[in-house]
């Protein structure tokens, strides 16, 4: 067989070819057009999904991914009775425990409820405006609220997002968002359970058929673990350390298993000797941290057992069969899944990228508003 030049083609083939190339051109034009359109729309509006956590706020923009990830902290200066926001996010977190008396570093979402409405509103507005900076039209905002939030708190979050320039604001319950983000079959008629260990609260929820059948929020989570480490060092070594240092120790060397296999890791801690008031240094081993974390972990176990006891046996059986999903930063604690299995006899699965599950689920709900409307709640 030999190749023919274009001149060898018969008239019918030439016509077919030119029609084909016309279609190809038209298709290409349409593709370029669509790309241009979405680029222009991207400049005009950027819808956003927000996970307003007690420790971290994360913002996801469809088509762009995660565009903001900052600690949920606001620093406020009190000048002659007037409160003025001086820093938000990372900069404000650096101030925690380090501020002079007229400045306060606040975590407005502290216990899963809004502890400080004004600071919470300022924080939401600030983050939304930062993401919106280069866009013209108002965005649609999907924002998640703790399952335990009261109607007043839901409205406050809704109003803050509207005040920040949201064209439409939708609310979704956090455990539902976490379950969607973790890829659980939330619409199916079988029970799935999620345990989200955040900074201020651990949220436990059981869902089936697109609804939340059980949800409870307990105030034992990441921050309680940090405080447990502070107290352990204080009572056993008479040394005072700050919560930020305790958090760093937990993340780097914390473990949930008391009798860890392998060689113990030495942890050097610097703090203040409580008797002499001078700087001091001690060395801990990782099982010391596991001991320190035992009580908070036990409280989380208690919450899980209570949930299993309170739902109908069919749901509990579904959960035992498919395992319990762990999300939130606390799921990153070394071998937390093993410890929870030992305590409850139920298998635990750590979701992919557990810190971002909630924002991922919130984003999926935003991108599928037409099919996921049932998951949303009213402000
Ligand atoms: P929230 O949703 O309440 O903002 P996150 O899900 O963002 O909370 O989790 C924050 C918590 O997770 C903090 O208390 C943090 O100390 C904890 N955390 C983060 N990484 C780890 C880790 N590797 N081990 C243990 N805890 C962790
Ligand atoms: Mg969270």
Indicate the low-confidence ranges by residue numbers: 1-9
- Please tell me the CATH architecture of the largest domain by its name: 2-Layer Sandwich
CATH class of the largest domain: Alpha Beta
Q: Treating each run of at least 4 consecutive H or I residues as one helix, how many helices?
A: 12
Write the CATH fold name of the largest domain: Nucleotidyltransferase, domain 5
User: Given the helix and strand composition, which structural class is it?
Assistant: alpha+beta
Overall geometric form? globular
Strand content bin: 15-25%
The unique ligands bound to this protein are:
adenosine-5'-diphosphate, magnesium ion
Mean pLDDT: 87
Question: How many β-strands, per DSSP?
Answer: 17
Strand arrangement, major sheet: 3-2-1-7-8-17
List the helices and strands in order: HEEEEEHEHEHEHEEEHEHEEHHEHEHHE
Major β-sheet, in short?
6 strands, mixed
How many separate structural domains?
4
Query: Nearest-angstrom radius of gyration?
Result: 26 Å
Helix coverage percent: 40-55%
Structure description:
There is one protein chain. With 379 residues, the protein is of the alpha+beta class. The chain folds into four domains: 41-72 and 110-181 and 355-379, ATPase, nucleotide binding domain (Nucleotidyltransferase, domain 5, 2-Layer Sandwich); 73-106, no CATH class; 190-220 and 300-354, ATPase, nucleotide binding domain (Nucleotidyltransferase, domain 5); 222-294, ATPase, substrate binding domain, subdomain 4 (Actin, Chain A, domain 4), CATH 3.90.640. Helix content is 43%, strand content 25%. The chain contains twelve helices and 17 strands. The strands form four sheets. A six-stranded mixed β-sheet has the order 3-2-1-7-8-17, with helices on both faces. A five-stranded mixed β-sheet has the order 11-10-9-15-16, with helices on both faces. A three-stranded antiparallel β-sheet has the order 5-4-6. A hairpin with a 2-residue loop joins strand 4 (74-79) and strand 5. Helix 3 runs parallel beside helix 4 and helix 5 (174-181) packs across helix 11. The protein is globular. The protein starts with 10 loop residues before the first helix and ends with a strand. The relative contact order is 0.13. The model is unreliable at 1-9 (pLDDT under 50). Bound molecules: adenosine-5'-diphosphate and magnesium ion (MG). Adenosine-5'-diphosphate (ADP) is lined by residues 53-56, 198-200, 222-223, 247, 250-251, 254, 328-330, 332-333, 355.
């Amino acid at each position: 067989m030999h190749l023919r030049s274009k001149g060898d083609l018969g008239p019918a083939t030439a016509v077919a070819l030119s029609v084909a190339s016309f279609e190809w051109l038209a298709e290409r034009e349409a593709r370029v057009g669509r790309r241009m359109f979405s680029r222009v729309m991207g400049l005009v509006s950027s819808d956003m999904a927000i996970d307003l956590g007690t420790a971290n706020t994360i913002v996801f923009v469809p088509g762009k991914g995660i565009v903001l990830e900052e600690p949920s902290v606001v620093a406020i200066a009190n000048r002659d009775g007037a409160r003025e926001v001086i820093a938000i996010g990372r900069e404000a977190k650096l101030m925690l425990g380090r501020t002079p008396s007229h400045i306060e570093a606040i975590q407005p979402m502290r216990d899963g409820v809004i502890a400080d409405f004004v600071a919470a509103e300022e924080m939401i507005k600030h983050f939304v405006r930062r993401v919106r900076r280069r866009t013209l039209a108002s965005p649609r905002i999907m924002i998640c609220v703790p399952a335990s939030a009261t109607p007043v708190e839901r409205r406050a979050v809704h109003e803050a997002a509207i005040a920040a320039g949201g064209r439409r604001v939708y609310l979704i319950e956090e455990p539902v968002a976490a379950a969607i983000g973790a890829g659980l079959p939330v619409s199916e008629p079988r029970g799935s359970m999620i345990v989200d260990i955040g900074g201020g609260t651990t949220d436990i929820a059981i869902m089936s058929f697109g609804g939340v059948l059980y949800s409870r929020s307990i105030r034992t989570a990441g921050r309680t673990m940090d405080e447990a480490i502070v107290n352990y060092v204080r009572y056993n070594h008479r040394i005072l350390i700050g919560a930020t240092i305790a958090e760093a120790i937990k993340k780097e060397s914390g473990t949930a298993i008391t009798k860890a296999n392998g060689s113990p890791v030495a942890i050097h801690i610097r703090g203040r000797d409580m008797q002499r008031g001078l700087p001091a240094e001690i060395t801990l081993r990782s099982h010391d941290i596991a001991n320190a974390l035992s009580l908070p972990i036990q409280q989380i176990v208690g919450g899980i057992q209570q949930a299993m006891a309170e739902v109908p046996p069919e749901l509990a059986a579904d959960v035992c069969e498919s395992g319990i999903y762990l999300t939130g930063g606390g799921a990153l604690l070394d071998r937390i899944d093993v410890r929870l299995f030992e305590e409850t006899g139920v298998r635990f699965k750590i979701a992919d990228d557990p810190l971002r599950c909630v924002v991922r689920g919130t984003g999926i709900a935003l991108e599928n508003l037409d099919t996921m409307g049932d998951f949303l709640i009213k402000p």
